[in-house]
Each structure stands twice: as structure tokens, then as C-alpha cells.
Amino acid sequence: MKLTAFELWTALHGMVFGAVFLLAFAGGLAGLYGLRREWLSTAGIKDNVRRLTAGTWIMAIAAWLTVIIGTWIVYVPYRAEPPEGADLTMYPKFNLTSDPSTAAWHEFGMEWKEHIAWISPMLATAVAFVVLYYGLEIAERPYLRRALIILFTLSFVAAGIAGLFGAFITKAAPLI
Q1: Is the CB of residue 117 less than 8 Å from the CB of residue 169?
Q2: Tens digit of pLDDT for each residue in 137-151?
Q3: How many beta carbons lie within 10 A of that of residue 162, not counting itself?
Q4: Which residues contact 76 (CB under 8 A, 6 or more apart)?
Q5: How far is CA 176 from each of CA 72, 96, 136, 168, rounded to the nearest angstrom?
Q6: For a tag site, which of 126, 130, 150, 163 has the least CB within 10 Å?
Q7: How many structural domains does the chain have?
């Protein structure tokens, strides 16, 4: 199988970094949920915090790489302006917006992907920083652990919705 450079970046954006993000979220959520003083010994908490720190930073880095590659590499062809009289099927944004029945895919879906999806790495980084900063204290502060779970989940939801819109938009107006 042979991939063009653009196909390789697209695969990295969605399949590689997206998959790492999903796996890190699952592990991070389980780690945060289980980080309770009453469930673990001091040695267990230390071990969990070490894994949790690594997992949350991996998720944050994967989220940043995904949105940066998506914004400045993968979706550059999506936004390309067609020359006068060109076949709009080769220009996805203009192909979508030219038909009122598909214009909402760009107007709402792509706007979410291009703007709201940036919230995901910001929230993931905030969680990773708090885990790094507070470490063992998270087990002693249930309110902090719950807040981190909420922020972590919001990061995942923003990325998940962006991923779904990406799949739907690519189906409606393929980039390749």
C-alpha cells in the first residue's frame, strides 16, 4: 500500500493521534476515578499518580498534535478557493456551501471542528497540569478529583464531537 504525503498526514491526524487520545482518555478516566484514599495504600496511590501523570500528558500532547495537524495541514485543501469555473467537487468547502442541503455541514460542523475543537487540548492540558502539580493530594481531595474528571470528560466530548463531524464532513465532501 502506498500513501501520498497528504494521506499520511490525514491518517496521523485521525487514526494515530486520535486513537492515542481515545486510549489515553480511557486510562486517565479510570485512573482519576480510582484515585481514592479509601481504595488504595500510599504505595498504590504513588503508583497510580505516576501512571496518571503520564497518561494525562500523553492525552494532552495527542490532542494538541491532532488539532494542530488538522488545522494547518489536513484542512488546508478543504479551505482552498476554486478558480473561476472549476469543478466544485474538487473543493470540499465550496462543494458543501454551494448546495443549501449540505451547507450546514460547513456552517456548523466545520466551525465546530475549526474552533471549538481547540478547547479539547486546552482542557486536557489543564487536567495534566493539575495532576502533575497536586499529585498525591488528589486522593485526599475528592472535590478536586471530581473537577478533574469533569474537565477530562469535557475535553473528550469536544474532541469526540469534532471527530464525528470530521467523519461526516469527509463523507459528504471528501478531501482526497
Answers
A1: no
A2: 999 999 999 999 999
A3: 25
A4: none
A5: 16, 15, 48, 14
A6: 150
A7: 1
Helices (H), the chain: 5-11, 17-34, 42-69, 76-79, 92-98, 103-104, 111-114, 119-134, 137-140, 142-172
**167 Cβ partners below 8 Å, 6+ apart?**
none
Residue 101 grid cell: 442541503
Q: How many residues does the chain have?
A: 176
C-alpha cell recorded at residue 23: 486510549
pTM over 0.90: no
Would you state the cell numbers that stand for residue 133, as one nine-digit string?
Answer: 502539580
Amino acid, single-letter form, for residue 56: T
Which residue ranges in the chain fall short of pLDDT 70? Answer: 175-176
Determine the Cα angle at 129 with ends 44 and 158, to 5°.
105
Which residue range is the domain that position 125 belongs to? 5-172
Max distance between CA atoms of the chain, in angstroms, equals 70
C-alpha cell at 157: 466530548
| SS3 assignment, position 82 | coil
